[in-house]
Structure formats: structure tokens, C-alpha cells
Amino acid sequence: MAETPELLQGTLDMLILKALSIGPMHGYGILLRIQHFSRAALEIQQGSLYPAVYRLEHQGLLVSEWGTSDNNRRAKFYTLAPAGRRRLKEERESWSRLVHAISAVLNATPSDLAP
Amino acid sequence: MIRRLRDSLRILFGRGRFEADMDAELQSHLQHQVDDLVGRGIPEPEARRRARAAFGALDGAKDAARAARGVRWADELRGDLRYAFRTLLHAKGYTATAVATLALGIGANTAIFSVVDGVLLKPLPFPESHRLVQLTRDYPLGALWTYRRRAQSYTGVAAYLYGGELNLYAGGIAERILGRAVSSEFFSVLGSSPLFGRAFQPGEDAPGAAPVAVISEGLWRRRFGADHAIVGQSILIDGTPRQVVGVVPRDFAFPKFGTEVWVPVQLDPKLVASVWGAGGTAFIARLKPGVTVARADAEHRALIPAVRDAYPWRMPDGFGQVPTNHARALDEVIGDGVKSRLLLLFASVAVLLLIACVNVANLNLTRLAAREREVAVRRALGGSRLRVARQLVVEQLVVAVAGGLGGLLLAGAGIPLLLRLLPPDTPRLHEVGLDPRVLLFTALAILLAGLLAALGPVARLPRTGHAELLGASGRGGSAGPRRARLAGTLVATEVALSVVLCIGAMILLRSLRSLLNVDPGVAVERLTTARVTPNPVWCKDQAGPCTCDSTAGGRCEAFFPALEERLAALPGVRGVALANAVPLDGGWSGFAMHLEDHPVAPGQPAHILGMHTVSPNYFTVLGIPLLAGRAFTPQDRGTASPVVIVARTLAERRWPGGPGRAIGKHIKPVWMPTWATIVGVVADVRYETLAAPPDEEFYMPMAQWGIGSAVAVVRTDLAPAALEPSLRRAVAAVDPTATLTQVRSLGEVRSASAAHPRTTALLIGLFAAIALLLGAIGVYGVLSYGVSQRRREIGIRMAIGAAPAGVRTLVLRQAGRLLGAGVIAGLFAAWLGATVLQGFVFGVSVHDPFSFTAVPLLFAAVGLVASYLPARRATRVSPTEVMREE
Q: Which of B42, B219, B651, B730 could form a disulfide with B260 if both were Cys (CB 3.0 to 4.6 A apart)?
């Protein structure tokens, strides 16, 4: 396994939604938030962030607006739309089901095979 | 969904902004990272370099971002559109033909649909109009009492009388205007409220109520100077002073467009003749919420015996049990009379659009042949079949939209003409127009036309072998023969559809001719008619048949003889007669009569005969031959010895064996005490329409039978317009409050009686002529294409000695095959479909042999003309040139 684990397909969307659930943020800030939360274990390919963000906006999960960032730079801020909040909840639930299922498989012992 | 569509549209049209936005955002991203790095003490140039490196490929990210926003399809669509415009501008001849063809088809469809929609489909302009029903038109006014007491399905039932004209006398000017006597519930049932003032109140139609009137905004502005003080004032309607209580808005037009006055009916049990004697009252009602029309109808049918028993005399046992006596949705009833004609028109115009689409598809297909190399190049360069097909569809949609816009212009210009062409008694014509509903229809027609026109060519896109196509000279491709076959099928279809339309049109036109050739039984030429109406207040109890013994009718009785005398003295007038109605005007009033030798058992339906009231010289002036006995004389007056004259059909049916057998027999209206003696028999006259065969009819002398309004029939060489001023002066001289309306020749009356069939025949004839033209264009196009495809073959044939005549035969044979297949298919379809014309034809069969022979001959002739040019071009092919081209 590599030092920074590969992201599963589709999980980037979930991470973006989660990062924005704390509050509105611009693209670079989203990357920093994800990095921070994962304690630097996850590094997102910068180039892959924007296609994902645009897709989410097109689906109506995010709303964007130009504003000014902390260091006084113009930046486009993304806010979680109500639909995005719902989606995040769904993704979270299915994710934890997946994690439980996978760890159950990985933690299985021969005794689990007995009827 | 809508938000996403809006997003997509923004991308499609705001492409520049999208790109600028994305660039700015990515720059901002990089700047933030640079700021971070600089903050950690890295010098700016190095920070900038690292930030760029960390981001990765900027262009790749942009592309992915564009794809994520669905920008790519928009890019491609814009490309397709641009390409389509370029191609179409390049092929000007094709584009002009295709756009013009579709403009004709879509324009005609839009115009006809606007009428269909306005007359049949649009909701009536009343609140919750789906709850409005018409109960019946078969009952007299008195049935309203039964409904008020017994009906449970409605929030209200209202009645209004048949016949919609009243005399208005104001400011010294007498005018006959559209007006209605209605029951007090009329406005509340319709859910309409006045502009100001009030509508009728309950009880205002009861005996002894003060006379009131509601007027329209139009009349208020036209005659009363838009003065609000009109409410409370008194105006003279039909000689009765009535207080105006309210003014209704201009757009309220019920039961007829242009109605300007509403007055309450007189629901007085003592007025037996007007409450029970006359039929023709319409009953409308508003359903209670949740009550269906079917439930209301069940109640309506159940109430029939109650209505029958409410009559003051015994009615036949089977009273009201006729199939027309049903409660039905009001909008449906209003469209009844014209529905089948409009749908026939709509069907024909839809066929025309289909022909136009096939024609464009066909033009397209032949053009695709010329573009074979272009398509092959595009495929070779990696354009997928789908992509090329999409390009073709986009191109056709562009053509269809251009055609549709042209069609809208045509429809905009055509609808006013169409409205003038349609018979004026068509209901709801004033609601017809290019409104959003019609525009939506046009948009659908455009979409359908574009897709249909693209269908053929797309189906025949070369599937394989683009390399092969590129290698060949573009003429030997494998798609060629297959495409030629499809083009042939398309043209044959087009010809078949045109044949169907042409046969239908010819049958209708021949039917119209035989209708106009019907002898109405009067000498139509050189007769001018005009309706003259004195104030009815003098002619008391008008709906009652006989006022001979009422003294109140005296002034009325004096009016008509005086009028007749004045009119006869006018210069240019050779004869004058008066009657209650003129021939061919749809005026037929039936009366329940007793006939000598034909007793009716109690409870059985009475004999219903058509009755006419005429002045003595009516038969001479109109040229109606006397078959036996004598005509009326001025001595036929008073009640002592009533006399009648019967028409031939009545005489022959009831007293067969020669017209003389009826003379001396007696008849009388069922409620009258005295029998009238038949003194003469005259020839039959068609009173209702040209198409309706004469019924059993009789005439009574005006001097013995009350009459409230008469048509003056004047024999003269003058045109109606030339005679009108002197007519008007003559009427005013007898009585300034009497009105004169409907001045027209009897020829115009006859023409108006055929208005519906004429409009249908003319419009379908027009569509058929367009169809014929399009069919000719189709044949011409395919043959030209065939000749250009076979240039090489023809050149070789000629090089080895074929004569020009032989080459011409080659082309003509192809033309013959196309036309033959199309005409035969068309004949077959027309034969099967002709039954839809049943009910529209008069005097010809729907399988009229003449039409089924003449139309194929016509198509053969047109086909020959259309193939002449291509055939000549084929004979001009120069063998040496063809060889050189290789």
C-alpha cells in the first residue's frame, strides 16, 4: 500500500461535500480542509478537484459565488445546497455500511465459517 | 430539472463567460498556494514554480472541468449549428425550396389549428367553465319552473330564448341590435359579473317585475358616450322603456359574439303561447362541484316526464325522448355544428404537412448523394455514424425552424383571411388568434417536420466502406441504388398522399356544384330582401300564432300593409311581397297541426308542419307556380273564414291523386278553435337549405295571422346597395322607430346557405392544389437526380448509338413507374378513406367515378410535364464530356 492511499472512485465527491458542510470555502481551501482532516494522509490531485466541484455544482449540490478570501484575494466560494446536504448524509450512510462490510470480511476467522 | 436546463443553456450561450470564470478561478487557486508558500519563506518565483508543478496539467484539468459541466455537447452542437448554416447557405436552391415547402405546410397547419383550437378546444372564457353544461334546446321556456324546483345537480339553471335581435330606439335613431331575453340566473350561472352596476336579480323574470336591461360595454361606449350615469337610466328596447341596471365587459359574448343587450324573459304562466307554445329555448346550468356531466344527464333524462306533465295541455307520450335531448358539456355543444368540418379540414392540412415533409426528405436524400464524398471524408476523419447523423438532424431542424418562422408569418397573414372566409355563424371565431397555445402547436409541428425530413437521409447514411467511397468517383458507391430506391418510395408516397387529397377536394367541389345547381323553387334573380321590424310592443303576444282578434295588434297589422304600399311605389321596384322568412335562410318554424282525414290518437305525436305567413302577391313576386286553386287575395282577412295554401309535398302526401284533391280540405293548429280551408296548392320551395328536401309546408295570409317582423322581398333591377337608402326612407316614413336590417339579394341568401360546404371545398381544394404542386416538385427532383446519377450510363449508351428518343423513353419509363405506383396506392387509399366524406357530400357519391378517373389523369399530365425537363437534359448528355470527366 502506498503512503497516501488511492481514493476510491466517487469518494472525492463525498469528501468535498463533507469539507463544505462546515462552511463555504473556495477550491484551494477545500483541498486544505481535506488534507487537514485526514491528518495529511490524503492528498488530492489538485487537477482533479475542479472537474468534481463543477460536476457537483451542475447537479445542484453546490452553489458558487465570488468573494474575498482570508488573505484578501478574490476567490470563488462554494456553499453546500440543501440537496448537497442530503446527498452527503446518504453517501455517509452507504460509506459506513461499506466499511463495516469490508472490515467484517477482513476480520473474518475460520470459525466464522461454522454454521 | 429546470435549473439544470438553465445551467445548460447558460453554458451553450454564455460560453465566453464560462471560460473566463474558470480561468479566473484557477488563477485564484494558484495564487492562494503561492501565498501559502511565500508565507513559509519560499521566494516568490520559486513558490510560483512549485505551485504550478503541484497543480499538474492545467489544460487537462480544464478539459475535464468542461466535460463535467456538460460543455462538450454544447460545443459540438454549436459546431453542428454553424456547419448547418454554412452548408445551407451554400445550397441556396435546396434551402429555399425546403424552407418554402415547410413554411407552406406549417403555416397552413398553424392557421387551421388556430381555428380548431379557438372554436373547439380552448376552455370557454368563463370561470371554471368545465362545470358549464347545456341541458337541452328542445323545451319551451316553461320547463324552467320544473328545473328550478326539481334539479339537484346544479348550483343554478338558466334559460335564454332563441332568436337574438331586438330593436333599440335612442336619441331618435332606431337600430336593430343583437340582444337576448334570458332568465334571471343567466349571469350567475356563467359566473360573469358586470363592469359596473349589477346583473339580474332573482324574480326579475317573474310577472309584474319592473322592466330592466343589462347592456354591453361596446353598446355603452358606442351609443351612450361611455357615461357611467347610464345605470339607472331608461332606454327603449322593443318599444318598452327599460331601466339599465348594469354594463358587462366587452369580452362577455354569450350566447353569441356581438350581443349587446340582455333583458329578462317573461316567466308569466298567463302568457301561454310564449311560455309553452314556442320551443327553441336553450337551458344552461353550472354543475355543483364534484357532479359529473353523466350524473347530470341521468337526472335530466329522469325529469323528462315531469316536464311533459307541466304543459298546460296533453303532450305526446314520447315527448322529449329524442336522442338529441341530453345534458352535455357546454363547450362541446357550442362546437357541435362545425366540429366535423373543422376536423376534416385539420386532417387534410395534416396530410399536406406530411406531403411537405416527405418532399423535403426526398430533396434531402438526393442532395445527400451529392454530399456522399463529404460524408465519407467526415467518417474517415473519425466522425461517428451517430455524429454525422446528428449533424443531418440539426441541419433539418434548422431548415424546419426557418420554415416554421415563415409558416408563422404566413399564418399571421392567413388567419384574418381565413376568418373572413369561414361562415360568420361559426361559433367563437373572435377567440381565434396566434396565442401561446397555437405557438406551442407550431413548435411541435416544427420539431415533427424537422425529424421526419431527416429520417430518410439518416436511415440511408452509408454504413460501410468509406474508403471505397473516397476511392470511387463518388458515383459508384454502394449506397447509390439503395438510396435511389428509397427516393422512389418517398416520391411514390408523396404522389399517393397528393392523390388522396386531390380526389377528396374534387369530390367536395363537385358536390358543391351540384348543391348550387339545386332549384330552390323560386326565381332567385333580381330579388332583394330586407328584414323590417316594427316595435313589437304593438304586435302583442308575438309568439302566439294568431293576433287577428286582438285589438292590441291593430297598429302592427296596419304597419305592414302601409309598408308594402310605400315600397311598391319606390322607383325601380317592380313588385313587393312580405313574408315571415325568405327561402334558403334556415328559417323553418314547425307547428303542431290537425289535418282533416288524418286524426291523431291522444298521446301520439302531432303532425308538425312548416308554417309561413305571407302577403297576397308573395307567390307572384317570388315566381312560385300555383298548381291548383287560387292564390291569396286582399280579401283574405279577418277571422271569419280562415284560408291556407299548401305546398305540393304536403298535398301529395296527405291527399294523393293530384293537387286538386287537397282543395277544400281543412287544417288548423292544435290549440285553435277554427279550421282553415285549403284554397290553393303551390310548388315546393326549399326554405331551410339547398340540401334539405322540401318538407310538409303551408302558407297563411298575413292579414289573418299575426306577424311581428317581416322580410320584404322586392323584385327590382337595382343592386341591394343601390336600393337600400330608398328602402330605409320608406320604412322611416311609415314609422321612425321600425328597423331595417339584412339588406341583400336572394342570390346572396342562397350563397350564404352554402357557406359551410363552400368554405370546406375551397380550403381543401387549395390544399390539394399545393399538394399537387409539391408532388410535381418531388417527381421532378427524383428524375433530375436519376438523370445526373446515370449520366455515365447515358453517355455510354449514346456513344454506342442510342437515339435521343430511346434515352428519353428511359427517363419517362422511370417517371411512369414512380407515378404509377403512387397513383395506384393513392387511389386505393382514397377509396378506403372516402367514407369520411359521408355527410359532407351532396348529389355525388363519396366514390364518385368521375373524380376517381379525372385525378389520375391529372397526375399523369402533371407527371409528364414534371419529367419533361429531366428527360430533355438526358438527351443532351454529351458522350465525350462524360468520358472526359472520368
A: B219
